[in-house]
Amino acid sequence: SRFSKMATSASSKLNKAVKQQYMDLPQGSKVQAMYIWIDGSGEGLRCKTRTLNSEPKSIEDLPEWNFDGSSTYQSEGSNSDMFLVPVAMFRDPFRKDPNKLVLCEVFKYNRKPAETNLRHTCKQVMSMVENNHPWFGMEQEYTLLGTDGHPFGWPSNGFPGPQGPYYCGVGADKAYGRDIVEAHYRACLYAGVQICGTNAEVMPAQWEFQVGPCEGINMGDHLWIARFILHRVCEDFGVVVSFDPKPITGNWNGAGCHTNFSTKEMREDGGLTVIEDAIERLGKRHRYHIGAYDPKGGLDNARRLTGHHETSNIQEFSAGVANRGASIRIPRSVAQEKKGYFEDRRPSANCDPYIVTESLVRTCLLKEEGEGPTDYSK
């Protein structure tokens, strides 16, 4: 059959029952802590594990660590030590309790944040607007690929039938790779990630999960850990997850990371006027946001935001009620109830959630204007 030719990794074919025999061994009083960080590409994740003598109850219980930045696009070989500073802790769904996943910020030898450590500034900006209680929900689209880069379950020569039956589809001819989606969902729940849903997307082998509502800095923390868990689940199944915003050229939907945003004022009666004011501010800062919404300053999104396939055109800012072809969509229920949230449809699937959420706060709450972010450290 056409499915038997699917290119999966060699390690996925190792005997899992044999592995389980070792995973079932008691580990005594020791705890395995997997430290996770974002590498110099701004998209890739790295991880390594250390043993702790007892179960950490809070971030303060986790020691700082270091790694060789010259192998992660983060430093030169001559001065390569980088610092890992734990910032968020989750239960480990792969090794199970009492083991932990530890999200870290990366700092250089001089204790300055690494170039792709976008969390550091995001945290400062979020602390300035705590009283506004900014809530975010992010919709992470992704594509499953074989190890040869061919979409999962697609015929090895050619294409599946055109888009239409796949979105929220059910059946072997419509949903490609549901096992991965189910495993990821349960692993996120176990870990303590604020995952709130999943669905099959418009392109076959493309799926989406949603994380939120999360307040402030938690949005970025939870989305990055959810991405890490997805990479790790896919590794077990021998396939690859791609967050590329346009994995297949042609008449196929791209992949975004639609970001839903609200503040305390927007959620209260009459909040629609606050939403409209925020959208007006966003309209004047379109170029700044496009530059922040993918790791290549807008170049990745240029392949996706064409004005077709449920996207807006990258050159133009637009807003509308229930309009999936607009930059900003106001859900119909929000327009009717005159309060709630809005959806920014511009962020790319491979965006960094820290800078996306930060830029929304800067423009809508701190009321910044102009091409670049304001520096508050001075």
TrEMBL record:
Identify the InterPro entries for this entry.
Gln_synt_N, Gln_synt_N_sf, Gln_synth/guanido_kin_cat_dom, Gln_synth_cat_dom, Gln_synth_gly_rich_site, Gln_synth_N_conserv_site, Glutamine_Synthetase
Q: Does the keyword Nucleus apply?
A: no
- Which intervals hold domain GS beta-grasp? 29-111
GS catalytic domain mapped to chain residues:
118-378
Catalytic activity line of the entry:
L-glutamate + NH4(+) + ATP = L-glutamine + ADP + phosphate + H(+)
Q: Where does it primarily localize?
A: cytoplasm
Needed cofactors: Mn(2+); Mg(2+)
- Which EC numbers does the record give? 6.3.1.2
Q: Which GO terms describe its cellular component?
A: mitochondrion
Q: Name one GO molecular function term.
A: metal ion binding
Root EC class: ligase
Q: Any idea which UniProt keywords this protein has?
A: ATP-binding, Cytoplasm, Ligase, Magnesium, Manganese, Metal-binding, Mitochondrion, Nucleotide-binding
Q: From the Swiss-Prot or TrEMBL record, state where the protein is found.
A: Cytoplasm; Mitochondrion
Q: Which example biological process does GO assign this protein?
A: glutamine biosynthetic process
The record's family statement is: Belongs to the glutamine synthetase family.
Please give the name of this protein.
Glutamine synthetase
List the lineage, top down.
Answer: Eukaryota, Metazoa, Chordata, Craniata, Vertebrata
